[in-house]
Amino acid sequence: MNGPILIWGAGAIGGAIGAAMIRAGEDVLFVDVVADHVDALNRDGLTITGPIGATRVSAQARLPAQVEGRFDRIILAVKAHHTEAALVDLAPHVADEGYVVSAQNGLNEHVIAARLGRARTIGCFVNFGADYIEPGVIHYGGRGAVVLGELDGRASPRIADLHRLFLTFDPAAIVTSNILGYLWAKLIYGAQLFATALTDDSIADVLAMPHARPVLTRLAHEIVAVARAEGVTLEAFNGFDPAAFLPEAAPEVTAASFDAMVAHNRKSAKSHSGIWRDLAIRKRKTEVDAQLGPIVSAGATHTLPTPITAAIIAMIHEIEAGQRPLDRRNIEQLDHIGEQGQA
User: Residue 46 to residues 12, 31, 39, 287, 336: CA-CA distances in angstroms?
Assistant: First the structure.
């Protein structure tokens, strides 16, 4: 496969990955819906700030309506709740033998496959820390797991080529035969991140709070049960140990995983989640429905209750609407809901 790499979504994830590929000599074309960002990329290039790979690279960018031609290699990096809308514009530009790899949060691979077919869909799990700062500027705050995989788990020439490209971004990037195991594990950790974003405290501070850990553990138990019902074997990453969040796990094992996640997040220059930035800084809707909604739906399919996950979704909606403040008391309310669910 050849031709330019199309990165659809030039925000925190797409921008950070694309800058590394450009710096490695790859031909990259960014696409974004924010006109000011597209203008800044074409005029000034893409600036990466932070402790890892700070740089400025020349960049080419287009609005969706300005894209021409078809592409073999496309990285989709829009917010999860924008996936379906992006695919409407993106679909005509995917070559017959091309693929779209989802560098996003959530289970967007299923959405892409429903639109383009499983043969043109590749899975990707990312857990690095980055933020969109302003037009043309991305802050890359800390490394995290980067994992690629075919949906059927096979080792293919195209996944090998994609791995080569992602190694330019992170030398520790890997290929897996169990990409869904990573994506479901990230759903558990991601749900915990949504819980941390109910407060103004950092990710690490909330994960370290003794009074927050019980409800975060019960939250994980909910989603582990759904993942098991879906037949998924969960994978570990960056301190998150799925075995630590099994209902039968020993308390000291769960505590050790929390401690490892705290240590991982303390090393990052990105202290708060992108969810918190959406709520507190950018004042816009989060990915909560696209990320956590499928957990509740899958739980209902298997008649598995998910009251804490559902309560987080409701609380996030209230914060988005300006009806609930970011406050530690939200964690206390969540804990109360979790205790009621166990009664």
Answer: 11, 13, 11, 25, 46
